[in-house]
Amino acid sequence: MLRLIKIEFQKLWLNKVSLVLIFISFILPFTVLILSSIKINFFGFFTLELGELGIFNFPIIWHITTFFASYFKFFFAIVVVSMIGNEYSNKTLKQNLIDGLSKKEFVLSKFYTIVFFSLCATLLIGIATFVIGMYYSSYTEATIIFREVEFLLAYFVKLVGFFSLCLFFGMLVKRSAFALAFLVVLYIVEWLVFWAAVYVSGTVETAFKVKGFLPLESMYNLINQPIQRIVMTKFPEKTDIMYDYAVHWYEIAIVLGWTALFVFLSYLLLKKRDL
Questions:
Q1: For a designed S-S bond to 93, which of 87, 151, 173, 265 qualifies (C-beta 3.0 to 4.6 A apart)?
Q2: pTM for the predicted model, two decimal places
Q3: Contacts 24+ apart (CB under 8 A), 93-101
Q4: Residue 87: closest CA among 19, 14, 21, 159
Q5: If we measure between CA atoms, which residue out of 136, 155, 169 comes closest to residue 62?
Q6: What is the rounded distance in angstroms from the CA atom of residue 186 to the CA atom of residue 181?
C-alpha cells in the first residue's frame, strides 16, 4: 500500500496545479477558524460575534464544522479526475503497466491516495473543531466534548465516497472536464428519479427515501444541514422544527457500498479497456 501511495505522490509532486489544489483543499476548511472570530458591528448599536452565539459549543460544533467543511471537497475532486486524465494524456498509465504495475494495483494506488488525503482532511478539521470548541464552548466535560465525534467518521466516509465517484467518472470519460460534468448529470438524474418516485408512490416522503439510496443524496445524508438544529437550540419550544440530524450506521453502510462499487467499476473499466 505504501509503495502505491508513494508512486502517486511522485506524480502529484511534479504537477504544480495539483499541488496548488491540494493546498487549497486543506487550507479552506480552516476558514471556520476565521468565521468563529468574526465580529459584525451594526452601525454602532451592537456587535454580533458568531463565537458568542453558542454555535461553537460542544457537541453541536462537530456537526457544524464537518457540514460546512464538506463543501470544500470539490477542490480535491478536481485533483482526483486530473490524476486519471493526466495518466491518459501523458501516457503514464501505459508506461506504469509496462514497468510491472498491474491494473488492479493502478486503481488501488488511486484509491489509497484518496483514503490518505481524506484521512488527513478529517484529522485537520477534527483538530480545528477541537481548538475552536475548547476556546468558545461553555461545556468542558469530556463526555460532552466527544459526544458527537461520529460526525468526523461521517465526514471521512463522505469524502472517500465522493472522491471514489470522481475516480469512476475519471476512468469512464478519461477527461477531467467531462468527468466533473458527469457529477452535474448525476445530480439531475437523481432528481428525475425522485420525481418519478413521487409519481409512482404518490408521496414525497417515500420519494426521498428512494433518493436516499442514490450516490450523491446518500453522501449528503451522512451530515444533514445544521441550521435547523441551531434554531432548535435557541427556540426549544418550537417542536415543529425538530428533525433527525444524527449519523446512522445504515447511511454509512450505503455510502461504503457505493464506494466499493465505484472502485470495482473503475477496475472493471480499466481491465476491459484496450490501452
A1: 87
A2: 0.89
A3: 93/275, 94/275, 96/7, 97/275, 101/7
A4: 14
A5: 155
A6: 9
